[in-house]
Design goal:
Blueprint: E1 3-7, E2 10-12, E3 18-25, E4 34-39, E5 46-51, E6 58-60, E7 68-73, E8 78-83, E9 92-98, E10 101-102, E11 106-110
Parallel strand pairs: 2-11
Antiparallel strand pairs: 1-3, 3-8, 4-5, 4-9, 5-6, 7-8, 9-10, 9-11
Length: 112
């Protein structure tokens, strides 16, 4: 069955960095684009970044452009989200998504 397992979240100070990973299984990973979303308390889940099958095309929410980088390793069936210059407003639960499938999420807390 399809599994998406996120990891790498945690507590970080403003200006810090984190790298999230999402390990995928149960489908042919290299054939599909992938996405990262986040849910901030009190708000709807929002799209953060997407990546094409080979990784050559990426897109980002305006709020994270220039700070976050999405990438993938098709040999490892894993998609990453490198987050730099983190802000308090980046706090939330981060999810990876494939079609209609979601991972369980990983908590990112940015606080001093």
């Amino acid at each position: 069955q399809v599994q998406l397992v996120e990891s790498g979240g945690g507590l970080v100070q403003p200006g810090g960095s984190l790298r999230l990973s999402c390990a995928a299984s149960g489908f042919t990973f290299s054939n599909y684009g992938m996405s990262w979303y986040r849910q901030v308390p009190g708000k709807e889940r929002e799209l953060v970044a997407t990546i094409s099958t080979g990784g050559s095309r990426t897109s980002y929410a305006d709020s994270v452009k220039g700070r976050f980088t999405i990438s993938r390793d098709n040999a490892k069936n894993t998609v990453y989200l490198e987050m730099n210059s983190l802000k308090v407003e980046d706090t939330g639960v981060y999810y990876c998504k494939w079609l209609d499938y979601w991972g369980q999420g990983t908590q990112v807390t940015v606080s001093s």
